[in-house]
Amino acid sequence: MRFSVDRQHVVVVGAGRSGRAAAALLVSRGATVTLADSAQAIDGAASLESLGVRLALGPHDAALFSGADLIVVSPGVPAGQPALQSARAAGVPVIGEIELASRWIVGRMVAITGTKGKSTTTTLTARMIEAAGLPVTAGGNLGTALSAQVDRSTPETIHVVEVSSFQLEATDTFHPWIAVLLNLTADHLDRHASLEAYAQAKARIFANQTADDWSVVNAGDPAALAIAAGGRARRFDFALDSRFDAAVSIEDGQIVRRDAGQPRPLLPLSAVRLPGRHQLGDVIAAAAVGCLAGVPPAAMQQAVAGFEGLEHALERVAEIDGVAFINDSKATNVDAARRSIESFDGDVVAIMGGRFKGGRFEDLREAAAERLAGVVAIGEAQALIQSALGDVVPVEPAASMAGAVARAFELARPGGVVLLAPACASFDQFRDYGERGLAFKSEVGRLAARRAAAARRAGV
Predict the structure, then answer these.
(1) Which helix (H) or strand (E) holds 373?
(2) In contact, 384 and 393? CB cutoff 8 Å
(3) Which of 81, 122, 141, 246 could form a disulfide with 219, with the two C-beta atoms 3.0–4.6 Å apart?
(4) Domain CATH code at residue 26
(5) How far apart are CA 183 and CA 276, in angstroms?
(6) Is residue 134 part of a domain?
(7) Mean pLDDT for all residues in the chain
């Protein structure tokens, strides 16, 4: 029976991008909607109220939650909130925004998750499908919420959806045609009770797949392979390293698909313009999905050749007096920061820190010893970074992004790199990783202006 919310009272919890999209979708499907958020003011309030959405701002009302017919939670809302627990105890179903939207999607879904690389892989996959002339949308955790795509969904549409562990843990019937698991390392342990709980959330991407579906998994990641092992879908793995047995990998300077043991070229590595070995892995994963979606090699190459990466993902910002400034604010966990550092041969001054969310800074010691000339530590994690790395590389504190950029430039050598690779969440000083990256870019711009003004005064 088709899912319906007609004449039901639905409470949406969390007024971020996903929550607002879910509220609008629910109203359009006949529900009476209350949008609850602990903040006293939210973006888009007037627009939501004009749709008929009631706002419940401030501390959550347990009675409101327990009296609902359905509760839809935004990904930023922890599942253990007392008002949600009371609602569950009262028998109220609680689902996530991605689950809600998926119940009305009529096209096929490609769902992409992993600790690192989701956004790049999602973007590249959608570009490849679009270059092949197929109808496609992209969004989810990246860009447009899935709830905002429902009205554009047709049986021919392919929805490429980035999904986080926060979104997956609140799914029930979510059923992707192609499910992609890029990698798995410790992350979000400030919210998930353990690494095992984090892995279980990621594993939900495969939970409702059948033998008619596909799973695409990193053959070089044992943790990802273990999660996917119990799935029912057909496997079509990818690998960055040709030593691993995979359907799509690298051979003789090409990304290739192996059919009956024979390699068939998909695109040359020379077409890839993204820095970092890990981002090459994202290209290979996207190519694997492209194979399953019927994307010809020429369209794959067209999509990749014109793509220089996402903002805040190893983004080259400027070069000042021979020092390159790189914004990798999306490197929000320890493993992502390690991969970021390993994208450069050496002479790197890293700006790291923020709100620690699990993992071990000690895992950066080898990369730090080989490639870092210094670390400038910001935010709440300064002491942890000093303790873990201080005997391997000089670590200096900075009270602000302005101070961090200025000091990192002083420590850098011509031909070297100043790299924002935080290894932490941003919430101690910034709204999100995007605001942190913009702050870095703004301070680099100010530094460039000061250096240019000094050069003019000196008559250079």
Answers:
(1) strand 372-378
(2) no
(3) 246
(4) 3.40.50.720
(5) 16
(6) yes
(7) 94
pLDDT for 24:
97
pLDDT, residue 76, reads 83
Looking at 305, 329, 346, which one is the last position of a domain? 305
- The total of structural domains in the chain comes to 3
Shared-domain flag, residues 282 and 326: no
Give strand ranges (E) for 178-291. 178-181, 214-217, 234-235, 248-251, 254-259, 262-268
Amino acid letter, 114: G
The CA-atom distances, in angstroms, between 347 and each of 341, 381, 390, 393, 454 are 10, 23, 17, 12, 25
Distance (Å, rounded) from C-alpha 145 to C-alpha 260?
A: 39
Nearest CA-CA partner of 163 in 182, 135, 186: 182
Q: What percent of the chain has pLDDT over 90?
A: 85
Same domain? For 88 and 106 the reply is: no
Q: What is the pLDDT of residue 194?
A: 87
Contact 61, 85 (CB under 8 A): no
Question: Of 305, 327, 346, which residue sits at a domain end?
Answer: 305
Structural domain harbouring 390: 315-453
Angle separating helix axes 277-293 and 118-131, nearest 10 degrees: 40
Residue ranges in the chain modelled with pLDDT below 50: none
Domain at 259, CATH number: 3.40.1190.10
Q: Which two tokens stand for residue 350?
A: 């890293």
Is residue 351 in some structural domain? Answer: yes
Q: Given this model, what pLDDT does residue 262 score? A: 84
If asked whether residues 132 and 246 sit together in one domain, one would say yes
